[in-house]
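Hey,

The postdoc asked me to send both predictions to you directly instead of through the lab channel. I've kept everything plain text so nothing gets mangled by the mail client. Protein one:
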Amino acid sequence: MPPRRRRQATSPKSLNEAARLADRLQQAGYTKRDIARIINRDPSLVSQFYTKNKGAAFVPALREVLTAIEAGGITDLPELTAIAARHISRRTTASGTRARVRGKAVLITPTGTGTGRVGAQAIASGSTRLRPLIAEAARQGLRLAFTVRLAKTGYVHPSGSRTDSPGIRRDVVQRADHSEERSYGSAQTGGFDATDFARRVDAASGDVTAAVHQWLVETGRIHPDAHILHLEVRTWRPR
């Protein structure tokens, strides 16, 4: 059997402009997931800058973000997201009208596994795209967990506190913008009843951000004036 050929690394000269700008952002300390949050898109799209030559529509926004970082010293992701948003325009059809954006259907596997993530812009409008996921999880009687990112000062308990997230691996993710990601609920600890969270979302008029924020405040985990920067919801079927 002939030896397998090693995949050749992509030459910087062969990268498109979006990928080159993404490389510079990564050299500045940002991950592909951070870049995706800045342009308010799925992380898989950033990977496609490299593999499928995509990203031309985001070049102006990425250039402005790099200028803000390198010349303006701005590092806060929400600020960078706001800067990028001013330079991202919707695609147009051949007739010049705005192209329709394909929405993601709620996808929950037969095992009950489902995931939904939102960044700064979606959070500001209530993270409504997560509502169908939570509603479907409640309909199927699934369990639920979530991860939030806040400024470090927004949390009541220090990093790694067992009071904050008992039974969960406590090596929180710390970001360069002085924020932290912390997870609440897991398959190992049993997570939360999706039905209960669906009721909370309904009580908040469909505002998922507000429902999660209220739960964190009620349980003494964050300060009332804390702002959620990133939210991820995960579901699974209880055994």
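Protein two:
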Amino acid sequence: MAQHTAEITWQRGGQDFVGNRYSRRHAIRFDGGAEWTGSSSPHVVPVPLSDPAAVDPEEAFVASLSSCHMLWFLSIAAARGFCVESYVDRAVGRMGANAAGKIAMTVVTLRPEVRFSGERLPSTAQIEEMHHAAHDECFIANSVKTEVRCEPVPADAAPQ
């Protein structure tokens, strides 16, 4: 199987580390060359020690689940001859205590809004089945204990 890497880099830069007064801002570099600015969530570590403009691990986790689901959905739709015009997911992750009493991402809800074009359009049942198949195939969803829900938004019911 493939290996995927991420390099995380942080430096103290003279900050008061032992006094817990240091920035959580760091660099995240991926094997393909992309780079993000990372930080702890401001919900966990208050600003200015967190950078609210940076990507925190919780956001990256939610995005990873959403992205994996979308990529599988697009592949499945293409294989079935449906033309996807656009895909937007406003995914939400919720933190809470898990069964062991530890704080964890307890549920991630995907809310994909998919628009199709062309002469052959899928029925609501076919769209739901493609989302179910995408969830079953998603490498990330298959790797976590978190409950992952998919609540598709019908294209005609979504806010513009």
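Summary for protein two, as requested: The beta strands are 6-9, 26-30, 35-38, 83-89, 92-97, 103-110, 112-117, 147-150.

Thanks,
C.
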